[in-house]
Design brief:
By secondary structure, this protein is α/β, with parallel strands linked by helices. It has helices at about 40-50, 80-95, 110-120, 155-160, 185-190, 195-200, 235-245, 265-280, 295-300, and strands spanning about 20-25, 70, 100-105, 125-130, 160-165, 180-185, 205-210, 250-255. The chain contains nine helices and eight strands.
């Protein structure tokens, strides 16, 4: 067990807000899940697993932590789903405006509503790459539009949403789905060119929201709503690496880890996935190279897209 409060127990010199290129925001929220509970314990399990992970990435021959990773205070607002989303939105946007590479670890998928909103206000012509077993396109569910089942509804209306790995949905979600930009798991299993097709549909700026139930439950059983027929480890990494190589990934979140006391393998997979994504982001950048993640110039001039969501910022 690490004696520090830093991500993965990294030395203090790599964990300072002022110099870190990466921000990691935990969001231990599980207020709208409808079957398996426990996503609020996901960030803690992820961080504990990260402390026991080797920090040298063999594939890229890099140590991503040396870019600097600042572990932000957890967002614990849980008075209502809307209040949580608003807090995630506000906090995420504050760190983006500090020119950081912002990442979040949930929590259930409703946290991504606030995350995506912040990134869409800060980056022009944003693609949201939604990797998930479920479509999550409902306009509202259980009396709120801030439900995990609505995680990318707003993105479907205001961003270039591309969905990958989908294998479970309600018929009402077809109303909001762009099937030309939806890659169903059963089709992906027989299409050797699906990765290239996904990348070709992307704009330059890409935000990734990764629901861990996109992965097959044989390698990721600890999720709230596991579905058979999911992605496997190396095909997932190959896909992600190509996205990072060919596009400007501006940030990402990972959600829906529901840890259990018996099997820690899912916690460790989540920790490795996060670190692999960082390795792909920074694999061509030296440690002392200044990070440039320039956000939408309209935001700098005060003419951001914030009005379309009618959100007030402090």
């Amino acid at each position: 067990m690490s004696t520090t409060n830093n991500y993965a127990g990294i030395p203090d010199q790599f964990a300072q807000l002022e110099t870190a290129k990466v921000i990691l925001i935990p969001v231990p929220y599980d207020g709208t899940s409808t079957w398996g509970k426990g996503a609020d314990k996901g960030p803690e399990a992820f961080l504990k697993a990260s402390e026991n992970m080797e920090l040298y990435d063999i594939e890229t021959a890099t140590e991503p932590y040396q870019q600097g990773i600042y572990l932000a205070d957890a967002i614990t607002e849980d008075s209502s789903p809307e209040a949580m989303v608003n807090e995630v939105h506000k906090t995420t946007k504050q760190y983006i405006k500090r020119n950081k590479f912002v990442t979040l670890f949930g929590g259930e998928h409703s946290v991504s509503i606030g995350t995506i909103r912040a990134f869409n206000e800060c980056f022009s012509n944003l693609t949201v790459l939604h990797i998930d077993a479920h479509a999550d396109l409902r306009e509202s569910y259980d009396g709120t539009k801030f439900n995990h089942a609505c995680a990318v509804h707003e993105a479907s209306q205001h961003t270039n949403l591309i969905q990958v790995g989908i294998r479970s949905m309600d018929v009402i979600e077809k109303t909001y789905m762009d099937e030309e930009k939806t890659f169903f798991a059963h089709d992906m299993s027989t299409d050797e060119y699906w990765v290239d097709k996904v990348v070709d549909l992307m704009t330059e700026n890409v935000f990734i929201t990764f629901d861990l139930d996109a992965l097959d439950p044989s390698i990721m059983p600890s999720t709230g709503t596991p579905e058979p027929g999911g992605l496997f480890w190396y095909e997932t990494l190959e896909f992600l690496k190509q996205v990072f190589e060919e596009k400007n990934v501006v940030g990402f979140d990972i959600v829906e880890l529901c840890p259990n006391a018996v099997d820690k393998s899912s916690d460790f997979l989540a920790a490795k996935l996060y670190y692999k994504m960082l390795s792909y982001k920074f694999m061509g950048q030296s440690i002392d190279e200044t990070y440039d993640n320039t956000y939408d110039v309209d935001l700098k001039s005060g003419n951001s897209n914030i009005s379309k969501f009618e959100e007030d910022e402090d």
